[in-house]
Automatic annotation (TrEMBL):
Keywords: Lyase, Metal-binding
Metal-binding in keyword set: yes
Name of the molecule in the record: Sirohydrochlorin chelatase
Domain of life: Bacteria
Amino acid sequence: MQQAQAAIILFAHGSRDPLWRVPLEAVAAHIAAQQPGRPVLCAYLELCTPSLPDAAQQLAAQGATQVTVVPMFLGTGKHAREDLPVLVQDLRAAHPGVHFHVQTAIGEDPRMTALMAEIACEAPQS
């Protein structure tokens, strides 16, 4: 039996400004460094490429059988609550051999909340 290949898609809104992508791509690079055998891609709702369907297609073509979609939003707004479930439903229909799991918006994780609070309370550097 073939071992399932787990992959990650970091899903964000997107922006025309190329500098906007840098922090998201840094997260992907960090994951790739920590888990070199685990495919990770960034995907965007609009204004950037690849789209979520394109990223899923690429991972499926590489043999991914499990894909975790991580909404890189501070909260579960309209995009995470309404747009993402429709997109993931389409992914499941397009790739029946791939299990898609969607995490809660990254900003709603208590660890992220604590980290943001810690950063906000840091003393200014002179």
